[in-house]
Amino acid sequence: QADLNKAQTQLDAQKAAELAAQNKAQEAVNNLFASQNPANDAKAGLTQAEIDAAQALINQVTDPAKKAELQASLDKAQQQLDADKAAELAAQAKAREAVNNLFASQNPNGDLKTGLTQAEIDAAQALIDQVTDPAKKAELQADLNKAQQQLNANLVAPNAPQVNNITDVDTKITGKGQAGTTAVVKLADGTEKTGLVNASGDFSIVIPKQVAASTISVTLKNAYGVVSEATTVTVSGLPQPVINPITISDVTVSGTIDVSQYPVTKVRLSINGAPKTILTVGADGSFSYYTGNLAVGTTIEVQYIGPSGAYLTDSLYTGTAVVTEQEVSLVLNDMTVADLYITGTTLANHRVRVSINGLLKATVTADASGNFSYLSSYLVKGDIVKAEVLLGANVAKTVSTTVAEAAATELVVNEMTIADNTVKGTATPNAKLRININGVAKAVVTADASGNYSYVTGSLVSGTEVKVEQRNAFTGAYDTSKTVIVSGEIPGLLLTLNDLKAPEGIVSGEATAGYTVRISVNGTVRANTVADASGNYTYNVGVLTGGDVVKAEIRVGSEYLLPTEKIVKAEFSLNPILDTDRTITGKAPAGKTVRISINGVPKSITVVDAAGNYTYLIGLVATGDVIKIELRNTETGKYEEFVERTVTAESEAGQVTINALTDADTTISGKTVPSGKLRVSVDGRAKTVITADTDGNYSYFISGIKADEVIKVELKENGVYGPFAETTVTAAPVVE
């Protein structure tokens, strides 16, 4: 039994081991399938390792039936796995082929193939999506992404091209753009021309000539058909030179060209088809060339170099002009025997040949206004004057005129006075005139073209006979004459002399402007002075005394006329009064009566002594009191003239100042007591006596002072010149 039990035990153990092996194998096989059910398909993601592991477990099962069952399920899984592997490899192969086909030469390491489309990339993506191997799928996806990036870049439109200017003579269009793209040129008529942009980014496309002002658009298209924005250019028309009309009288060819259309700097000038010269074009497009006079029918052409570098010979771009005839103007003015000049008008700056009685006299040139003249001197009645205008060496027009008798003109001699120094009048134009004074011939003068004449005779005395004789152009005799007698009366001649009062010596008055006035004192000539432009004269003769006789005379020629005299009135003055004075003194005409008042109240009457002095004991006075002296007119008995002074403080007495002077100054000035009498001296020589104004200011006109001279001003107090001020004249600064 023991042995049986042992056998039973071993058998049970074997059964248990077998059952365990079957269970493990069954579990492993079940795990190969979806939902662990061998009746289903193999699970997703099944691997060969899992099948191999399950096979190892099946190999441990000893029950033939169970083992066969398990093996059948495993074989099913193996078959499905093998089928999935085959499908994966096929999917990988298709995906790889599709991805490789996206690139040039099927090389994913290179660039995309030409003409690749998004549809091809999308189809390759669909095949990659069928690949289940993660590593292989990632590899394929990376290559496809590279293709997608390149395609995306190529699908961006190129930048618009740069297009060079084009003219209506150009046969190609040029510009710059993205290398490798195609330039598409759309012409105005809708036709298109294409060309490749080279590796340097340049393109040049042949086109037919275009009409000026038409438009051309240019785009760039890349290999994927993506088109740039268009660049539009307008065809510019080349300018045609314009030659100004030219006639046989012109000597210069000129014209213009529109340089704003095309930058023309030089033009070629041809005459009758033969190139003549190259001209520089101005900034304004103008050009000109001196040709001299050209014959009628001469052809002038102007051409310039176009964009091609050659001269444009097409008529559209060539300026043309033909020399034409012109109505040549030539006018010869009528002439009389009185005319000295042959005159007329013609073409500006042209030569005119002048002949008299068939004899060539001169060739003259008209000025810029066309005027010409020739001094022919005297011609006689019947002379034939001929003028010929020349164009080059040829006579273009001839005109003639016959010299006629001059129109009779009355001889006129203007009236003369002793103020005149010139004989004047009118006569036959250009006539010879002989001037006689008191029967003596002095000169022969010629009247101008208007008949006016004049001769300076100098000053003539009253009664002088002036005769003018006119020469007969035919006989040569002076057979016409007129005579005038110089008059001593001068209309409008003026001379006045202002009243004078001692001691001041300023002589003044009015006189005809510009005339000289002679001044005498007591029969002695003291000065000659000239009336200014306003008709005033003035001169300082020095100190005058009452009774002096001053005379003024105006000079006309060599004579002194209109003598005017004034008797100097005696001095009537009141000396300065201080608040300490008890007596007042002054000057007045001898024997005259004066009335003294203080602050408007009459105080006394006194008589001037024989020396012209008066004195009065007035008593106490105060600063500011006004002392008034009135002079009685013996004829009327009335007190008419007066002088007055204000009493000043003793502390202010004797004050005199004088301003600095240079040799350029003409006025002596300063300050002293109000109404003070001042004597002015130069280097010790008394010049004049002046009176300060009521504020004490004084001034005196003086001329011709010199550096280092001493100017002295003395104040008269109580009849005596005492306090003084002086200054030495200095040199004025030199102005550079």
TrEMBL record:
Gene3D superfamilies: Immunoglobulins
Pesticidal crystal protein Cry1Aa domain location: 21-83, 92-153
Bacterial Ig domain: residues covered: 157-236
InterPro entries named in the record: Big_6 (IPR041498), Ig-like_fold (IPR013783), Pest_crys_Cry1Aa_dom-IV (IPR054544)
Name assigned to this protein: Bacterial Ig domain-containing protein
Organism of provenance: Listeria booriae
